[in-house]
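Hi V.,

Quick status before I head out on leave. The structure for the redesign project is tokenized and pasted below; the design run finished overnight.
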């Protein structure tokens, strides 16, 4: 009985397939707009959306240009995501090494992590209004669990032989964490940061729909209130492109880490 083996697709074929899929998507969109499947106000053509996208970069809408809104969103994202990484990674490593930390943190963490980030919006609005604190809190709640869980798993999967060797040499717990657990957990931590960044970026957009006075999410709200679908689609495209860039950057970091580790 013959078995089928998965073979890696050549890079040029992958690029060609991705290009064809994009062309097909925009072609179907153009056909739907041309045949007026919906009024132009609600289904603008790709060209109309592109023109609006360019216009938003040159003419302020709701007080800001598109690039200003994107930078505002990225600033909030950097704060929330950075806070999640700074707290989540060390705490996950500590939980993986100290059983008492795991016992203390696990129950409240597992209770809180199942609360969807969007559910924190009313709380954030009451506490922070439309200030920067609300979106940062919501990004943190979206990004924090993945940082902690992957760091915890990375610490648990470090080969026990490395830890036993360090103990035989009389290395302290702190040095074991910094010199054994952390380097051994790096691939898992980077993978967690990728997931965390995606969840944090999506949480940010949800937060800006309600508790922000600038940013890409705020742009979507204003476009919807003006019944301008082209503006809404322009904002959605910006969200997707920025999210893709963030993921690509983290993927490059992950690849470099794996190359250095000989993986």
């Amino acid at each position: 009985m013959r078995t089928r083996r998965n073979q890696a697709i050549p890079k040029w074929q992958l690029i060609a397939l991705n290009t064809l899929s994009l062309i097909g998507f925009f072609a179907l969109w153009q056909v739907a707009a041309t045949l007026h499947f919906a009024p132009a106000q609600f289904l603008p053509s790709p060209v109309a959306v592109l023109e609006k996208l360019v216009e938003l970069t040159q003419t302020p809408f709701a007080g800001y240009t598109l690039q200003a809104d994107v930078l505002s969103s990225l600033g909030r994202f950097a704060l929330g995501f950075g806070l999640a990484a700074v707290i989540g990674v060390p705490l996950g490593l500590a939980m993986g090494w100290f059983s008492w930390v795991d016992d203390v943190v696990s129950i409240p963490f597992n209770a809180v992590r199942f609360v969807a980030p969007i559910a924190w919006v009313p709380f954030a609005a009451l506490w922070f209004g439309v200030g920067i604190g609300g979106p940062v809190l919501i990004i943190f709640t979206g990004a924090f669990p993945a940082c902690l869980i992957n760091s915890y798993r990375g610490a648990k999967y470090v080969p026990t032989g490395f830890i036993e060797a360090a103990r035989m040499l009389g290395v302290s717990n702190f040095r074991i964490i910094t010199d054994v657990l952390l380097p051994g957990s790096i691939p898992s931590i980077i993978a967690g940061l990728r997931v965390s960044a995606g969840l944090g970026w999506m949480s940010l957009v949800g937060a800006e729909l309600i508790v922000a006075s600038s940013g890409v999410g705020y742009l979507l709200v204003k476009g919807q209130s003006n019944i301008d679908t082209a503006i809404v689609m322009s904002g959605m495209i910006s969200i997707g492109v920025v999210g893709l860039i963030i993921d690509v950057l983290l993927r490059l970091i992950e690849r470099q880490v794996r190359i250095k580790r000989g993986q």
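Above is the designed sequence. The mean pLDDT is 86.

G. will cover questions while I'm gone.

Best,
W.
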